[in-house]
Specification:
single chain; alpha/beta; 6-stranded mixed sheet; globular; binds iron/sulfur cluster
Length: 602
């Protein structure tokens, strides 16, 4: 084992307090230093932490942004989701492949570049996009791809690609990013003006129980998608026995088409941190953690700076505003795993393990991070809290509808004239919203991302709210030239990739549905397929352990429900009674290859 590697691993482990629960941070740092977490590095970490190497091996193989094989000095990760594909992903990929002389998943022989595909990186409104190193690069086309390769070949420094910033605080020197906010509509809750400290001062003037009562009176529900009442979650966490409690902000928005939290963290980080601090006060926590998705690493320095500024103002740290209340916030990074958006998987990740969802009960409010009662809240939810405490529950309830109070951030992408982020009041119809974003001729809208539902024009008068058309924020618009079955197939490919594989219905079901859709699109579908899809989908919903498997059949089930004609056009019984799904040539291909000595020729 090389001395330098050993020494560096020792330093990294020491910097992380030799803490087993910081294994993900340690592995990420090793990857940054050496371009991979090699077998040797795994041995060194195992020795330093005194843990079995298999635990480190399992962690490294789980996260998309970690690798045991050496990666190039510059890693280009092309965002590959349905919207990227609609806007030219394939052409951009081909241009990169041609310019680099490698395919996806490969590294150039000189070790300069690695080219990879990755799931949605939170830039669907400026697709096709890529992460080059940690630098988000937007609005790609084949010419730009070739220029980028030519330029990077001379200096290998992705930060030099940023010549113009995307405006707003993307122009802050600590962000300095070409990402645009595309903030199309600012409402009176989340993007209204605020001053640091105003909400916390009010919170600390009342008891934690009164804070919880105010949040309950505002009827605030979680904005990440599940819609659980926030006040109730805090009440449970506060009441749960445990010396150490935790408030975690889930900034791992990985649902394709969702990028609202990115804009909120860019423009209103103070409001989010205020919400975390108030939440900590309410549940009796002194530690908060912002779990930031790896794709948003470019925001980290700026967010750290904001935290430091809040400490200087006595809004964070010990004895906040001389109240005797101690609370501090730490930022921890993800490493590329969609399933970590699920709260128990996120907690596993923070504990230094694979992002495997945990069996519930116990719920995090009873036994969460490091076994302590934990409240996991969405970025947008926490920003709402700051507003509620500052201006009162009654003011908050003036917005929205009876059961869906306040406003909702929607991130819109796809076939619409004005993609971006909108803060709208709950109660708006989908039709009204489509007019706003320039998607009036949509033939379909995916509401709530791939795990949500796809609806057609007959449902455009439905209302965006918890009781009707619920969404965590993602709205993907599809115009007349799109094939909804191809979109559903892309979504199923995503879920097949992202399933953590622990339970069979999810691990196998996603693949079966993807392959079934591919067969139908290839003209080999038969009526029995639809019954089979329904049965698989029901099994997945009922028997999968976590939200991913419980919802990942939705692209198929909702297109079957709302777009039956798309299936009917392609699915038919064979007039001669043969199984159309049976492909004789494909089935015989292996046998033919073996019979002819492996060359495949007759
Ligand atoms: Fe993993 Fe899927 Fe099971 Fe969730 S449902 S635990 S993602 S295999």
């Amino acid at each position: 084992m090389s001395g330098r590697l050993e020494t560096t691993v020792t330093e990294i482990c020491e910097a992380n307090g030799r803490d087993r629960t910081r294994l993900l941070s340690i592995a990420k740092r090793v990857q940054e230093k050496f371009g991979c977490v090699s077998e040797e590095a795994i041995d060194a970490i195992a020795d330093e932490l005194g843990i079995p190497r298999v635990e480190i091996d399992a962690l490294v193989s789980f996260y998309a942004f970690l690798s045991k094989e050496p990666l190039g000095k510059v890693v280009i990760r092309l965002s590959d989701d349905a919207v990227d594909r609609m806007h030219g992903y394939d052409e951009v990929r081909e241009a990169f492949e041609e310019a680099l002389g490698i395919g996806l998943g490969e590294t150039t022989p000189d070790g300069k570049f690695t080219l990879e595909r990755t799931a949605c990186i939170g830039l669907s409104d400026q697709a096709p996009a890529a992460l080059i190193g940690d630098v988000p690069v937007t609005h790609l086309d084949p010419d730009r791809a070739r220029e980028i390769v030519a330029e990077l070949s001379t200096h290998l420094d992705p930060t030099q690609l940023v010549r113009e910033t995307g405006g707003g605080r993307n122009a802050h020197p600590l962000v300095w990013s070409m990402v645009a906010n595309n903030l199309r509509e600012e409402g009176e809750v989340l993007f209204s003006p605020n001053r640091p400290g105003e909400a916390i001062r009010k919170a600390l003037a009342i008891t934690p129980q009164e804070v919880i009562r105010a949040v309950k009176a505002a009827r605030l529900r979680g904005r990440g998608g599940a819609g659980f009442p926030t006040g109730m979650k805090w009440e449970f966490t506060r009441a749960a026995p445990g010396d150490e409690k935790y408030l975690i902000c889930n900034a791992d928005e990985g649902e394709p088409g969702t990028f609202k939290d990115r804009v909120l963290l860019t423009e209103k980080p103070d409001r989010v941190f205020a919400g975390m601090t108030i939440g900590g006060y309410a549940i009796g926590a002194s530690r908060g953690i912002l779990y930031l998705r790896a794709e948003y690493k470019y925001l980290r320095r700026y967010l750290e700076y904001t935290l430091e500024d809040r400490r200087r103002r006595k809004l964070l740290g010990e004895d906040i505003l001389h109240s005797g209340f101690d609370f501090d916030i730490e930022i921890r990074m993800g490493a590329g795993a969609y399933v970590c958006g699920e709260e128990t998987a996120l907690i596993s990740s923070l504990e230094g393990s694979r992002g495997d969802p945990k069996t519930r009960p116990p719920f995090p409010a009873q036994k969460g991070y490091l076994g302590g009662p934990t409240s996991v809240n969405n970025v947008e939810t926490l920003a709402c809290v700051a507003k509620i405490i500052h201006q009162g529950a009654a003011t908050f309830c003036q917005f929205g509808s009876e059961h869906s109070t306040g406003t909702k951030l929607l991130s819109v992408s796809g076939d619409c004239g004005m993609p971006g982020v909108y803060e709208v009041e709950f109660g708006i119809t989908l039709r009204e919203f489509l007019v706003k974003c320039g998607g009036g001729d949509a033939i379909a809208v995916q509401v709530g991302g791939p795990s949500g539902k796809m609806v057609g024009p007959s449902e455009y008068d439905r209302i965006i709210c918890y009781e009707d058309l619920s969404t965590g924020g993602s709205m993907m618009v599809f115009g007349p030239e799109r094939n909804v079955l191809e979109v559903a197939r892309d979504f199923m490919e995503f879920f097949a990739d992202e399933s953590c594989g622990t339970c069979v219905p999810c691990r196998v079901g996603n693949v079966l549905l993807k392959e079934g859709l591919e067969r139908i699109l290839a003209g080999r579908g038969e009526p029995a397929d639809l019954d089979h899809f329904a049965a698989i989908g029901t099994t997945m919903k009922q028997t999968s352990r976590c939200g991913l498997g419980q919802t990942s059949a939705n692209p198929v089930l909702s297109t079957m429900e709302h777009f039956p004609e798309a299936y009917e056009a392609l699915v038919a019984a064979d007039p001669d009674g043969y199984r159309r799904s049976f492909d004789l040539d494909a089935e015989l291909s292996q046998a033919r290859a073996v019979r002819k000595g492996g060359n495949g020729h007759e």
